[in-house]
Structures are given as C-alpha cells and as structure tokens.
Write a structure and sequence with these properties.
Blueprint (H helix, E strand, L loop, with lengths): L2 H8 L2 H10 L1 H25 L10 H18 L4 H10 L2 H5 L5 H8 L1 H21 L11 H26 L9 H14 L11 H8 L8 H5 L7 H29 L9
Length: 269
C-alpha cells in the first residue's frame, strides 16, 4: 500500500472519529459489561484454582490469563458486521461501489477510532481490576522478547478478526441480514477463542479440533505469549499459524466479495 493509498483511506478517519465520539456512551456501556464478565470469570477461576493447580496453570497464572483476556478482548474483537449487513440489505453499498475505494479497507479504517478509544480505556480497566483483586498475585514475564511477540500477536489477531468480521457481514449477500448465521459465528469465536478459558484445559480431541479453526488465534495465541505452559517453540508456532490464517482469511475476503457482489442488487425510490 503506497502513500497515496494511505492518504486516500485516511480521509475516512475524521468521520469515523466523529461517529465514535458521538456514540462514546455505547463504548462505556460495553466496557462496563466487559467488567462484569471479567468479574464473573475471575471469581470462577479463582475458586477453581484456590489452593490447587492443573493444566499448566496455578492461581496466579490463571488470574493473569483472565486479566490479559479482559485487556485485549474488546480491542481485538471490535466488530462492525451489522453496519456492513445493513449496507448490503439497505442498498447503501451502492454509494461506495461508485467510488474508487475498496469497501474492505474502508470497513477496516472505520474501526480504528473505536479501537483507539478502547486502547485508551485499558489503563483505567487495569486499575479497576487491581483495586478489586489487590491480593491476587499475577505472573507477568520479564522477558522483553515475550512482550514483543505478544504485541505482534495482538496485531495479527486484530487483523484476523477484521477479516472474520467482514466475512460475517458478507453473509448478507446470500441471506437477508443473516442474523442467525452471524450470531452463530459470534458464539463460535467467543467459545473457541480462549476469551473465557485457556483452550489447553479442554479435552485433547476438542483442543485439536479448535486449533484447526482461526478462532483460538484471536485471544488464546496472544495470551500464550505471556502466560501458560506453552514452550518458546509453541509460542512461535502460534504466531506462525496466525500469519497463515491471516493470508487465508484475506484471500477468502477477496473471493467472497467477488462472488457476493455479483448477487448484490439495490432498488432506488
């Protein structure tokens, strides 16, 4: 992507920022919901691991896992599939098809301000978590290499989710708004991403099946760079799998768009 292309798509940032700030209360409510989910998850795992260990985790590492999941979950999994589905069904997609832009890249850029606001809220969320659980130990690594891999893995996971979100919204080309299918995909990624439990704690055959999907590389792979029983080799393999899935998902986006756009139709008033 050259400088001219970057400049072209950066023109979408000002309206995206205005839209985000206009609905900042929604983001606050989503963050509040995430806080309650974190509390329920943290208390559950602290109860399970109180005085015991298992699956390569103890009370400090499982709490660290839950904290990191809460930190990056909203950032990685910020979706805009509803807007895309409504653009397709409502005929608003036509306005973008007449412009010299890629709808996919526009879709990606429009979510940058939301993710930026979520990122700004992370220190506040961390302070709240530490205030609620002042005596629970954490086990963050001191190795800067692990932190570098964590940051890289979060970036890859976010790019993967943008592609998954786009593909989810594209179901509206074939099904009217596709609420059922899109909700099913949302449930699958929530259950299989490692957002609520390390997938290594699942039975072996389930663990192996989930690793064949892109979902565990959204949350579990980044967190595994910081905490858990995975070896250094396994952590690198997780990042490698993210890169492979990112290429696959981007190719899927191109294919689905080229096929779906042929089915698109809009009727003017």
């Amino acid at each position: 992507m050259n400088v001219a292309t970057i400049r072209k798509y950066s023109a979408f940032l000002p309206p995206a920022i205005s839209y985000t700030l206009a609905y900042r209360f929604n983001i606050l409510m989503w963050s509040t919901r995430a806080l309650f989910v974190f509390l329920a998850t943290a208390w559950m795992w602290l109860s399970v691991y109180s005085g015991r260990s298992g699956g390569g985790y103890d009370v400090s590492s499982i709490f660290t896992y839950v904290v990191v999941a809460a930190m990056i979950g909203d950032f990685v999994a910020e979706d805009d599939q509803d807007t895309m589905a409504e653009d397709i069904v409502g005929g608003r997609l036509s306005a973008y098809l007449t412009q010299p832009i890629s709808y996919f890249w526009r879709h990606s850029v429009m979510m940058i301000p939301v993710r930026g606001l979520v990122l700004l809220l992370i220190p506040l969320k961390l302070l709240v978590f530490l205030a609620l659980f002042p005596n629970v130990p954490t086990s963050f690594p001191s190795n800067p290499g692990q932190w570098a891999l964590f940051v890289l893995s979060v970036i890859l996971a976010t790019c993967m989710f943008v592609a998954i979100d786009f593909l989810n919204g594209a179901f509206a080309f074939w099904f009217h708004r596709a609420y059922g299918i899109r909700w099913l995909v949302t449930i699958l990624w929530a259950l299989c991403s490692g957002a609520y439990l390390p997938i290594g704690l699942l039975p072996g055959w389930i663990h192996a099946m989930i690793l064949l999907t892109p979902f565990p590389y959204l949350i579990y792979a980044p967190i595994a760079q910081l905490v858990g029983p995975e070896s250094a080799t396994t952590r690198l393999l997780l990042v490698g799998a993210q890169i492979i899935w990112l290429v696959v998902l981007y190719l899927a986006v191109r294919k689905v768009w080229s096929v779906g756009i042929k089915r698109y139709e809009a009727v003017g008033a």
